[in-house]
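Components:
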Amino acid sequence: MQVAATYPWPHDGPLVPAQTALIAIDMQRDFCAAGGWVDQLGESVENTARAIAPVSRALQIAREARLTVIHTREGHRRDLSDLNPVKQWRTRAHGLGIGDEGTAGRILVRGEEGHGLVDPCAALASELVIDKAGKSALYATPLDGVLRSQGIRNLVICGVTSDCCVQSTFRDAADLGYDALILTDATAAVEDHHHTGMLALLSAHGGRWGALASLTAFEAAVTRAAA
Amino acid sequence: MTATEGSAPQIEATPYRYPALGKLCVRRTPLILTGFQKAALAETGVAGAEALKKAEALVGAWGAAGGPVILTRRGRPRGVALGEVAGWRNARRDADKMLVEGGAGWALALEVERAIVVDHMGDNAFLGSDLDHILHQLLAETAVFGGLLTEGTVHATMRAANDRGLDGLLVADAAASTDPAFHATIVSLTTFGNGLFGAVANTADVLKALK
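Structure:
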């Protein structure tokens, strides 16, 4: 399956930095790093780890262009009051679930080592970090309100995983009126066929929910905006 | 409890017998069929027609077992424009269009007496609607999904329900897409990681559990 061309983004003209935010989704040790949760489950982090360098590059481009930069982390309160019992049950199927003690602290719990962002994608002190208990960064978080209050209409989305939190956020962004762009080579899924399948369906029909483009195209858009 | 008393044993599903926790309480589990509208039905051709037949069988059995049925309908009120970006995207594609309320293509393709009809303007039926509120009144912790398009309103709504803590079941043969590969992708990633977004079963599995 292929990624079809969507549309030149933003849909209505050149990128305007003051109206644009880059959102780096869940670049956490638990998903991307050796020793994190995915790794401890015996699954491969080869794909998700491959997103680290391009996301780091995307962050650099966004910062130089003075876009608003926002990071998200999936995880739960230390008392697990925001952890649905079914979600916890599902994750325990392989013996190590959310909230359980792993080798990098408690899995997906705020403040624990595995929950933190990988170093190349670390947040600057001035950048907002959104903690979320769900997949969509726009569900039960301050993100929508923050974006609106700052006049941000356009979102550049990167991070992991393409088939889960990236696409969930992208879909909600579309329904909430944003013009969002997914950086196709700055995102990944644990399994290849889910990654390629998701990008194929998201890009169909000229981009029903938003645009898809490469990191290179994003950099070109930013350069044009600065010219 | 027997099926006629509003409860049922578990449903054989993938990757776990559904629901994950406890017994299935049909009375408090809405059957949520999203986007089963005439235009979508036409666009999905044979696959859509077959999904509709399965959905009708589900509706019959679910209602008989005392379960709530919710039909969602995507569209916009006549006097309200879509948001600027959504409108722009909608205008430049030929398929999966968001339609004006009252139009022939917008109308539901199945009629269910006593169904709760929820109107919504995007794909995620929770946004800008009272779906959340209805589920709260039902005390729902579980929900069963079908509809059109699998990768559109069905998945958007199911994944949103999942974020809200519901244990969802996708009835795969009661959903369809214009592209079978898109349908297959959604079915596969729904079950990934012991049910990233929930479990998947077929209509036959559900009917068997309701007997």
